[in-house]
Amino acid sequence: MEQSTPWEFSDDRGRLVVAGARPERIVAYIQAGATLWDHGIRPVGLFGSQHDGVTADPAKAGELPLTEIRYLGSGTALHPDALLAARPDLVVAVTYDGEQVYGLEAKTAQELEEKVPVATVAVGPGRSLAEVRERFAALAGSLGHGEPLPLAKELDAAEDGLRQATGGPVRPRVVALSPAGPDKVHLARPGTWPDLRALAEHGAELPEPAAGAGANWSTVGWAEAAALAPDVVLIDVRANAARVEALRTDENWRAIEARVRLLPWNPEAPVSRRAHSRFFTEVADAVRAAAARA
Protein backbone atom coordinates (compact mmCIF):
# COMPACT_ATOMS: atom_id res chain seq x y z
CA MET A 1 0.00 0.00 0.00
CA GLU A 2 1.41 3.38 -1.04
CA GLN A 3 2.22 5.68 1.86
CA SER A 4 1.19 9.34 1.86
CA THR A 5 3.96 11.90 1.74
CA PRO A 6 3.91 14.33 4.67
CA TRP A 7 3.12 17.94 3.75
CA GLU A 8 4.58 21.09 5.25
CA PHE A 9 4.58 24.83 4.63
CA SER A 10 6.39 27.64 6.47
CA ASP A 11 3.74 30.29 6.92
CA ASP A 12 4.06 34.02 7.49
CA ARG A 13 3.69 33.84 11.25
CA GLY A 14 6.95 31.92 11.28
CA ARG A 15 5.22 28.61 11.92
CA LEU A 16 5.88 25.32 10.19
CA VAL A 17 2.45 24.01 9.23
CA VAL A 18 2.43 20.25 8.83
CA ALA A 19 -0.01 17.55 7.78
CA GLY A 20 0.28 13.81 7.31
CA ALA A 21 -0.51 14.18 3.60
CA ARG A 22 -1.03 16.96 1.09
CA PRO A 23 -4.27 18.73 2.15
CA GLU A 24 -7.21 18.45 -0.22
CA ARG A 25 -10.12 19.86 1.79
CA ILE A 26 -9.35 23.52 2.37
CA VAL A 27 -11.35 26.12 4.28
CA ALA A 28 -10.18 29.66 3.57
CA TYR A 29 -10.68 33.29 4.43
CA ILE A 30 -12.55 34.63 1.42
CA GLN A 31 -9.61 36.61 -0.04
CA ALA A 32 -7.37 33.58 0.34
CA GLY A 33 -10.06 31.36 -1.13
CA ALA A 34 -10.43 33.60 -4.17
CA THR A 35 -6.67 33.51 -4.63
CA LEU A 36 -6.51 29.73 -4.37
CA TRP A 37 -9.35 29.49 -6.90
CA ASP A 38 -7.22 31.45 -9.37
CA HIS A 39 -4.56 28.77 -8.87
CA GLY A 40 -7.00 25.96 -9.61
CA ILE A 41 -7.83 25.05 -6.00
CA ARG A 42 -11.47 24.78 -4.95
CA PRO A 43 -12.07 25.47 -1.24
CA VAL A 44 -14.72 23.44 0.56
CA GLY A 45 -15.66 26.38 2.77
CA LEU A 46 -15.14 30.12 3.18
CA PHE A 47 -15.26 32.55 6.08
CA GLY A 48 -15.28 36.32 6.37
CA SER A 49 -13.94 38.96 8.73
CA GLN A 50 -15.48 41.14 11.44
CA HIS A 51 -16.48 43.55 8.67
CA ASP A 52 -18.60 40.92 6.92
CA GLY A 53 -22.11 39.66 7.52
CA VAL A 54 -23.97 36.38 7.43
CA THR A 55 -23.43 35.94 3.69
CA ALA A 56 -20.26 36.13 1.62
CA ASP A 57 -19.33 39.54 0.22
CA PRO A 58 -19.32 39.10 -3.58
CA ALA A 59 -16.91 42.03 -3.95
CA LYS A 60 -14.26 39.99 -2.10
CA ALA A 61 -14.97 36.75 -3.89
CA GLY A 62 -13.09 37.21 -7.17
CA GLU A 63 -14.24 34.42 -9.48
CA LEU A 64 -15.33 32.06 -6.70
CA PRO A 65 -18.67 30.33 -7.42
CA LEU A 66 -20.32 31.49 -4.20
CA THR A 67 -23.49 29.51 -4.84
CA GLU A 68 -21.48 26.30 -4.88
CA ILE A 69 -19.10 26.78 -1.93
CA ARG A 70 -20.36 26.86 1.65
CA TYR A 71 -19.98 30.12 3.56
CA LEU A 72 -19.31 29.37 7.22
CA GLY A 73 -19.79 32.80 8.80
CA SER A 74 -17.72 35.73 9.97
CA GLY A 75 -16.48 37.73 12.93
CA THR A 76 -17.58 37.02 16.48
CA ALA A 77 -20.40 34.80 15.21
CA LEU A 78 -17.91 32.38 13.67
CA HIS A 79 -17.45 29.37 15.95
CA PRO A 80 -14.66 26.80 15.54
CA ASP A 81 -17.28 24.07 15.20
CA ALA A 82 -18.65 25.76 12.07
CA LEU A 83 -15.23 25.61 10.47
CA LEU A 84 -14.58 22.06 11.59
CA ALA A 85 -17.97 20.91 10.27
CA ALA A 86 -16.55 21.36 6.76
CA ARG A 87 -13.96 18.67 7.65
CA PRO A 88 -10.94 20.69 6.47
CA ASP A 89 -7.46 19.22 6.10
CA LEU A 90 -6.13 22.80 6.13
CA VAL A 91 -7.35 26.32 6.91
CA VAL A 92 -5.77 29.12 4.85
CA ALA A 93 -5.99 32.70 6.05
CA VAL A 94 -4.17 36.00 5.80
CA THR A 95 -2.33 38.03 8.41
CA TYR A 96 -1.69 41.76 8.47
CA ASP A 97 0.69 41.88 11.43
CA GLY A 98 2.50 38.55 11.09
CA GLU A 99 0.88 37.29 14.28
CA GLN A 100 -2.92 37.27 14.17
CA VAL A 101 -5.06 35.10 11.90
CA TYR A 102 -7.19 37.76 10.23
CA GLY A 103 -10.92 37.12 10.35
CA LEU A 104 -10.80 34.84 13.40
CA GLU A 105 -11.10 35.78 17.04
CA ALA A 106 -7.88 34.86 18.88
CA LYS A 107 -9.71 32.21 20.92
CA THR A 108 -11.31 30.76 17.80
CA ALA A 109 -7.96 30.58 16.02
CA GLN A 110 -6.35 28.87 19.01
CA GLU A 111 -9.10 26.27 19.31
CA LEU A 112 -9.02 25.66 15.59
CA GLU A 113 -5.25 25.13 15.47
CA GLU A 114 -5.53 22.47 18.13
CA LYS A 115 -7.48 20.35 15.63
CA VAL A 116 -6.44 21.34 12.09
CA PRO A 117 -3.37 22.94 10.45
CA VAL A 118 -3.74 26.69 9.82
CA ALA A 119 -1.50 28.47 7.30
CA THR A 120 -1.36 32.25 6.86
CA VAL A 121 0.06 34.53 4.18
CA ALA A 122 1.05 38.10 5.12
CA VAL A 123 -0.74 40.75 3.08
CA GLY A 124 0.14 43.84 5.14
CA PRO A 125 2.41 46.80 4.44
CA GLY A 126 5.61 44.87 5.06
CA ARG A 127 5.32 43.06 1.73
CA SER A 128 5.28 44.20 -1.88
CA LEU A 129 2.41 43.07 -4.07
CA ALA A 130 4.77 40.78 -5.99
CA GLU A 131 6.03 39.24 -2.74
CA VAL A 132 2.49 38.53 -1.53
CA ARG A 133 1.68 37.02 -4.91
CA GLU A 134 4.78 34.81 -4.74
CA ARG A 135 3.89 33.61 -1.25
CA PHE A 136 0.42 32.55 -2.35
CA ALA A 137 1.97 30.90 -5.40
CA ALA A 138 4.35 29.00 -3.12
CA LEU A 139 1.45 27.81 -0.97
CA ALA A 140 -0.57 26.77 -4.02
CA GLY A 141 2.48 25.02 -5.43
CA SER A 142 2.91 23.04 -2.23
CA LEU A 143 -0.71 21.95 -2.68
CA GLY A 144 0.06 20.73 -6.19
CA HIS A 145 -1.24 23.66 -8.22
CA GLY A 146 0.51 26.36 -10.23
CA GLU A 147 -0.63 29.24 -12.41
CA PRO A 148 -0.49 28.66 -16.18
CA LEU A 149 2.68 30.10 -17.70
CA PRO A 150 0.83 32.38 -20.18
CA LEU A 151 -0.45 34.37 -17.20
CA ALA A 152 3.11 35.55 -16.51
CA LYS A 153 3.26 37.11 -19.97
CA GLU A 154 -0.16 38.68 -19.45
CA LEU A 155 1.01 40.24 -16.19
CA ASP A 156 4.19 41.58 -17.80
CA ALA A 157 2.10 43.13 -20.57
CA ALA A 158 -0.32 44.68 -18.07
CA GLU A 159 2.55 46.19 -16.07
CA ASP A 160 4.09 47.57 -19.28
CA GLY A 161 0.73 49.03 -20.23
CA LEU A 162 0.40 50.76 -16.87
CA ARG A 163 3.91 52.23 -17.12
CA GLN A 164 3.12 53.54 -20.58
CA ALA A 165 -0.16 55.06 -19.38
CA THR A 166 1.50 56.83 -16.46
CA GLY A 167 4.59 57.91 -18.40
CA GLY A 168 3.01 60.68 -20.47
CA PRO A 169 3.29 64.44 -20.00
CA VAL A 170 0.00 64.48 -18.04
CA ARG A 171 0.00 62.42 -14.84
CA PRO A 172 -3.53 61.99 -13.49
CA ARG A 173 -3.82 61.78 -9.72
CA VAL A 174 -5.13 58.47 -8.38
CA VAL A 175 -6.87 58.40 -5.01
CA ALA A 176 -8.13 55.22 -3.33
CA LEU A 177 -10.90 55.57 -0.79
CA SER A 178 -13.59 53.78 1.16
CA PRO A 179 -16.80 55.79 1.61
CA ALA A 180 -18.17 55.82 5.16
CA GLY A 181 -21.24 57.89 4.25
CA PRO A 182 -22.12 61.42 3.14
CA ASP A 183 -20.27 62.95 6.09
CA LYS A 184 -16.93 61.17 6.03
CA VAL A 185 -14.59 59.03 3.98
CA HIS A 186 -11.60 56.78 4.64
CA LEU A 187 -8.73 57.83 2.37
CA ALA A 188 -6.22 55.03 1.80
CA ARG A 189 -2.63 55.75 2.73
CA PRO A 190 -0.85 54.49 -0.42
CA GLY A 191 2.27 53.28 1.37
CA THR A 192 0.37 50.78 3.52
CA TRP A 193 -1.44 48.90 0.72
CA PRO A 194 0.65 46.58 -1.47
CA ASP A 195 -1.56 47.11 -4.53
CA LEU A 196 -1.38 50.90 -4.23
CA ARG A 197 2.38 50.80 -3.73
CA ALA A 198 2.60 48.72 -6.88
CA LEU A 199 0.68 51.41 -8.79
CA ALA A 200 3.15 54.03 -7.55
CA GLU A 201 6.09 51.82 -8.51
CA HIS A 202 4.69 51.69 -12.04
CA GLY A 203 4.46 55.45 -12.26
CA ALA A 204 0.99 56.34 -10.97
CA GLU A 205 0.71 59.51 -8.92
CA LEU A 206 -1.01 58.81 -5.61
CA PRO A 207 -1.21 61.87 -3.35
CA GLU A 208 -0.73 61.24 0.35
CA PRO A 209 -3.64 62.10 2.69
CA ALA A 210 -2.98 64.32 5.69
CA ALA A 211 -1.11 62.80 8.61
CA GLY A 212 -3.28 61.40 11.36
CA ALA A 213 -4.00 58.54 13.71
CA GLY A 214 -5.05 55.92 11.21
CA ALA A 215 -2.30 53.59 10.01
CA ASN A 216 -3.99 52.47 6.79
CA TRP A 217 -6.69 55.09 6.41
CA SER A 218 -7.10 58.83 6.98
CA THR A 219 -10.71 59.42 8.03
CA VAL A 220 -11.81 62.90 6.96
CA GLY A 221 -14.70 64.79 5.41
CA TRP A 222 -15.40 64.87 1.70
CA ALA A 223 -13.95 68.38 1.45
CA GLU A 224 -10.53 66.97 2.31
CA ALA A 225 -10.96 64.25 -0.29
CA ALA A 226 -11.88 66.83 -2.92
CA ALA A 227 -8.81 68.89 -1.95
CA LEU A 228 -6.58 66.05 -3.19
CA ALA A 229 -7.88 66.90 -6.70
CA PRO A 230 -8.19 63.30 -7.89
CA ASP A 231 -8.55 62.45 -11.56
CA VAL A 232 -9.10 58.73 -10.95
CA VAL A 233 -10.83 57.41 -7.84
CA LEU A 234 -10.49 53.79 -6.78
CA ILE A 235 -13.64 53.35 -4.73
CA ASP A 236 -14.06 50.53 -2.24
CA VAL A 237 -16.93 48.29 -3.34
CA ARG A 238 -16.89 45.85 -0.43
CA ALA A 239 -20.20 45.37 1.36
CA ASN A 240 -19.12 47.40 4.40
CA ALA A 241 -18.44 50.52 2.32
CA ALA A 242 -21.21 53.08 1.71
CA ARG A 243 -22.81 53.04 -1.74
CA VAL A 244 -22.30 55.88 -4.19
CA GLU A 245 -26.02 56.68 -4.15
CA ALA A 246 -25.80 57.52 -0.44
CA LEU A 247 -23.05 60.09 -0.99
CA ARG A 248 -24.78 62.44 -3.38
CA THR A 249 -26.24 64.64 -0.68
CA ASP A 250 -22.70 66.00 -0.19
CA GLU A 251 -21.63 68.71 -2.60
CA ASN A 252 -17.96 67.76 -2.38
CA TRP A 253 -18.70 64.20 -3.43
CA ARG A 254 -20.86 65.46 -6.27
CA ALA A 255 -17.96 67.62 -7.45
CA ILE A 256 -15.58 64.64 -7.26
CA GLU A 257 -17.97 62.34 -9.09
CA ALA A 258 -18.51 64.88 -11.85
CA ARG A 259 -14.84 65.14 -12.76
CA VAL A 260 -13.15 61.80 -12.03
CA ARG A 261 -12.94 58.36 -13.56
CA LEU A 262 -14.51 56.02 -10.98
CA LEU A 263 -13.00 52.56 -10.77
CA PRO A 264 -14.33 49.82 -8.45
CA TRP A 265 -11.66 48.80 -5.96
CA ASN A 266 -11.46 45.77 -3.70
CA PRO A 267 -8.73 46.29 -1.08
CA GLU A 268 -8.87 42.53 -0.44
CA ALA A 269 -8.66 41.37 -4.04
CA PRO A 270 -7.30 37.94 -5.00
CA VAL A 271 -3.51 37.86 -5.03
CA SER A 272 -2.79 36.19 -8.35
CA ARG A 273 -1.33 36.99 -11.73
CA ARG A 274 -4.79 36.85 -13.27
CA ALA A 275 -6.26 39.33 -10.79
CA HIS A 276 -3.26 41.66 -10.90
CA SER A 277 -3.22 41.72 -14.69
CA ARG A 278 -6.85 42.78 -14.64
CA PHE A 279 -6.21 45.43 -11.95
CA PHE A 280 -3.24 47.01 -13.73
CA THR A 281 -5.07 47.02 -17.06
CA GLU A 282 -8.17 48.67 -15.58
CA VAL A 283 -6.11 51.35 -13.83
CA ALA A 284 -4.09 51.98 -17.01
CA ASP A 285 -7.30 52.43 -19.01
CA ALA A 286 -8.69 54.86 -16.42
CA VAL A 287 -5.43 56.83 -16.31
CA ARG A 288 -5.36 57.11 -20.11
CA ALA A 289 -8.95 58.30 -20.20
CA ALA A 290 -8.29 60.87 -17.46
CA ALA A 291 -5.17 62.12 -19.24
CA ALA A 292 -7.06 62.48 -22.52
CA ARG A 293 -9.70 64.56 -20.77
CA ALA A 294 -7.20 66.85 -19.01
Automatic annotation (TrEMBL):
It comes from the Bacteria. InterPro entries: ABC_transptr_periplasmic_BD, Bact_iron-sidero_bind. It is found in: Cell envelope. Residues 52-258 form the Fe/B12 periplasmic-binding domain. Belongs to the bacterial solute-binding protein 8 family. Pfam families: Peripla_BP_2. This is ABC transporter substrate-binding protein. The keyword Chloroplast does not apply. Keywords: Signal, Transport. PANTHER family: FERRIC ENTEROBACTIN-BINDING PERIPLASMIC PROTEIN FEPB, IRON III DICITRATE-BINDING PERIPLASMIC PROTEIN. One of its GO terms (biological process) is iron coordination entity transport. GO terms for cellular component: outer membrane-bounded periplasmic space. SUPFAM superfamilies: Helical backbone' metal receptor (SSF53807).
